[in-house]
């Protein structure tokens, strides 16, 4: 709607098809488009396969949603669309899509500087749009000094509730006008929102909270890791134990924890991945205690 109000036009295709989308960008001189990681991956893969290098010269703005773009996808986007500013949005359908926006010069995953206390972690998803209110709601389970809590939002952009049995049910999602996004995070002094993960996926280990998404993002930055999933399994001592299932990239060798490393350079092992987590300053209790190698069809 904003494009139409600004005097622009939309280029429509029946459904997403990477060939149709790539051709439409070139033929119609598309200047901006919205994507998700899977679509960006398809566009980059198609461009490499067809040896296309000039399809994105007209594109000046790309908005990503539905999940974070990896380093590989961001670097690929800059090469295929060299004139484009790439932004990422965080939000949900129940709140009219986007809540916060951030420019992706490079993904932000680091310890925030000049923040009170010693707590850090998460992915910076930017600042709220001008009409968006966001606050962090603390529940009874947060007994530490951590600023992490439930991400809540309020405003005309939020839904009234879910339509259930011919009536509106807002008891579980909307309280006192605040919509619970179902995600967990915190806000820094400059107003940036830091996303930790989903409330339902939280792992409780040794009294500490671990959000799988944060650990997965760290592990996915290792050059030998293709895909990764982090889960918690029942443990008699810790309550839950953090473990990870990983799929390695072609050309890399998996070395069992009990085997000796040959030092060939392209090796992945539980010890190597644990060291990678520590180098990335992941808190000790968040580092997976064991790793399982996924098969070729691991999703």
Automatic annotation (TrEMBL):
Molecular function (Gene Ontology), one example: medium-chain fatty acid-CoA ligase activity
BP GO terms, sorted: fatty acid metabolic process
Domain of life from the UniProt record: Eukaryota
InterPro entries per the UniProt record, alphabetical: AMP-bd_C, AMP-bd_C_sf, AMP-dep_synth/lig_dom, ANL_N_sf
Domain AMP-binding enzyme C-terminal: start-end pairs: 214-290
Signal peptide (from-to): none
Domain AMP-dependent synthetase/ligase stretches: 1-163
TM region(s), chain numbering: none
Name this protein carries in UniProt: AMP-dependent synthetase/ligase domain-containing protein
Organism: Arundo donax
